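queue> pop job 88
queue> type: inverse folding (structure -> sequence)
queue> payload:
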């Protein structure tokens, strides 16, 4: 062994190579298939009960929702994907079953208007604070005396002298 440092670096390089080769094998590349119940839960979280207002399908306790969850399970076992199941529910009950409206047509305003309101509010706040900061700071100068007619000024001066 001429140089133990070179031997150490070679061992590290070989170990790294073997670990990289092992981690890229097909056994590591496959993801476990999710459980059907997990898929039903994930899909039903994004769908709302058509009967109960504002209640997600996964937490609704009505008999109808239990049947709809069972229907989702059947459709998943039949080989349908999440998008097909969503389209089925939209066709049956309308877009109200979606957690958020699709960003198309008039529904696009639900996505644009809040951002637009925030931008306009930010501009208003920017210009208001800019105006406040540009306003001159008051110096402690005495207030100016309003213009008084000469006859009144003479009378005030006489009355002040009379008091002394």
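queue> result:
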């Amino acid at each position: 062994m001429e140089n133990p440092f070179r031997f150490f670096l070679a061992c590290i390089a070989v170990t790294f190579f073997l670990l990289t080769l092992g981690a890229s094998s097909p056994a590591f590349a496959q993801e476990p298939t999710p459980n059907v119940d997990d898929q039903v839960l994930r899909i039903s979280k994004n769908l709302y009960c058509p009967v109960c207002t504002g209640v997600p399908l996964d937490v609704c306790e009505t008999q109808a929702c239990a049947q709809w969850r069972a229907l989702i399970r059947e459709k998943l076992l039949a080989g349908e994907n999440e998008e097909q199941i969503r389209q089925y529910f939209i066709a049956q009950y309308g877009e109200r079953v979606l957690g958020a409206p699709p960003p198309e047509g008039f529904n696009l305003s639900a996505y644009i208007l809040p951002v637009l309101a925030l931008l306009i509010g930010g501009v208003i706040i920017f210009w208001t604070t800019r105006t406040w900061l540009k306003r001159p700071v008051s110096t402690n100068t005495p207030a100016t005396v309003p213009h008084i007619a000469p006859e009144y000024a003479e009378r005030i001066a006489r009355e002040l002298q009379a008091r002394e």
